[in-house]
Write a structure and sequence with these properties.
Length: about 190
Amino acid sequence: MTTALLLMDFQNGIAGRYAEGGSDVIVNAQRALLAARAAGIPVVFVRVAFREGFPEAAVRNKAFGAIAQSPTAPYMGEDAEATQIVAELAPLPGEPVVVKRRYGAFASDLDVVLRGLDATDLVLAGVSTSGVLLSTVRHAADHDFGLTVLADACADQDPEVHRVLLEKVFPRQADVITVDAWAAGLGADAAARG
């Protein structure tokens, strides 16, 4: 049984909005990242971006079709600054960065990466709760991953939607805990093995 931490959509053009709004979500994600690294837990970064010309953005897709039609669309290109991981969570050499093409993290080669890591359990953090978190929790649960959602390492632009997802929806398929509780559990697991 292997656990992997997924840090999702912590990229300049998305997570930056939460930092500007006074949210601690990036700081909390950073604490989770440091705890995972200290415990030897693999970390996988997930970001959303598109190829030049946006061939993945079907016009009939309400969310992503608009990107291809927008004059500001290039900001979501694979090499754009907006799609790069925020500096506070910069991946180390060897830590995989997965590029997804939709809301959910599995709209990518994430499943291949997780199989390579032999991951059976996922710890999820990301922005937004109603976007990447919701889509990824549902997909991962349907594929029998053990799931933990780090409540204070996710955020949403709608606080009520965020609350309902964390308190009522996610607990049906995942353990919902704080970064501190998760990190404390890592210490207890290490002590038990030691």
